[in-house]
Amino acid sequence: MAEKAVLQVGDQSIELPIIEGVEGERAIDITSLRSETGLITYDPSMGNTGVCQSEITFIDGDKGILRYRGIPIEQFTQSPNFVEVVWLLIFGRLPKLDEITPFSELFTSNALLHEGLRLQYNDIPKDAPPMAILSATLNSLSYYHQELLSIEDSKSFMQAAARLLSKVRTMAAFAYRRSLGLPFIYPDPQLRYCANFLHMMFSQPYQQFEVTQEIEDALNLVFILHADHEQNCSTSTVRMVGSSQANLFASCAAGVCALWGPLHGGANVKVIEMLEGIHSGGIKPKECIRMAKDKEEGFRLYGFGHRVYKNFDPRARVLKEACDKVLAQLQVNDPLLDIARELEELALEDSYFVDRKLYPNVDFYSGIVLRALGIPTNMFTVCFSIGRMPGWIAQWKEQHDNPNSRIQRPRQVYMGPKENNYVPIHKR
Ligand code: CMC
Description:
mainly alpha; 50% helix; globular; binds carboxymethyl coenzyme *A
């Protein structure tokens, strides 16, 4: 017999089904709760709430496991190919050779921006935050590609997804070039996904940037490790916006806005600022740990802690190893890596962090890898967005394809004034 939870409220007792995921996680299905009892659940910040059933990504936060469509992320580290992972996440299985080739070709043919959109960059202030530029330009795909606002079939979905995945690189690189007052470098159809992004970032009209295999592999790895992370803040935002049947471009632009915050994707910038502060002698690592523990300071050890992981974030483990390898290959000696290691050691021995199960997360080491590749700090969260794009698209599609999807509409417990009377302005 299927297991049930029994809820007793006063004299009323109701049975609620328990659903079980394929990895054994159990959830009380409360969909009938309000209609049967008039009650709702209260779960601020949704730490205990499952909002969907998903087949895309599995995380076991206690064991430090992350799998894409069942495949542990560590298995993508040997010969990293981001576009394969994109396909896997979106379509549910690894692509065959005759599938990946036309898919990659779609990226090539969609890499350019509409001329109108390219000209828009001229009106953007030079010091505009690249994340603001990225969300705005992604959203503007909604008026340049209006034929894709409603996804009618798999062909139109593929067109919309390819546009997003391909153009996000171009938009990101153009935002960077604009901030430096440099001419835009157009995509090169001969180059693969990551190499093309680096080319648009760093080539000059008179000189091609040389992308070595090491650099390309490192960027592929960074993108892969960021590709999906189940129902995090930005992905939930994409699903929330998409649940109103808003189009894919608008939903993903909203995801970029959510990712921007320092508690989410923006943490990779904060980590480097913190490490730079320590390096320049502004603060000592021990002082940094003390400040992070003192609630009065309002300071967090950025790159540490996670809502789901109560163990090492497996992405941080991979990136820590990658740091050593990439820095050695590129012959970069970054003192921030030593400082990061020292901070990690101090935190992992400190009862404050141990008791709260605060471990390094993906952002702790990602910035050091990106710095070694020459990516400037203000582009770190933009790189996170490029990496996360397939996850957002896969999650949007899963929701869109589900015939039982309804608009997401949380409830609240009202604590404001009781019924009151309007007082005309001259009598107040
Ligand atoms: N430094 C100091 N204390 C911390 C930290 C930290 N980085 N993270 C959590 N804590 C403390 C927090 O103050 C609280 O203490 P207490 O129980 O005494 O009140 C306890 O640990 C639990 O923290 P929480 O804020 O309730 O945890 P949360 O699940 O709401 O927040 C988090 C998760 C990631 C926002 C948080 O750990 C944090 O702010 N970390 C720093 C920012 C960061 O690195 N974010 C990137 C997350 S990974 C990339 C991504 O997917 O976005």
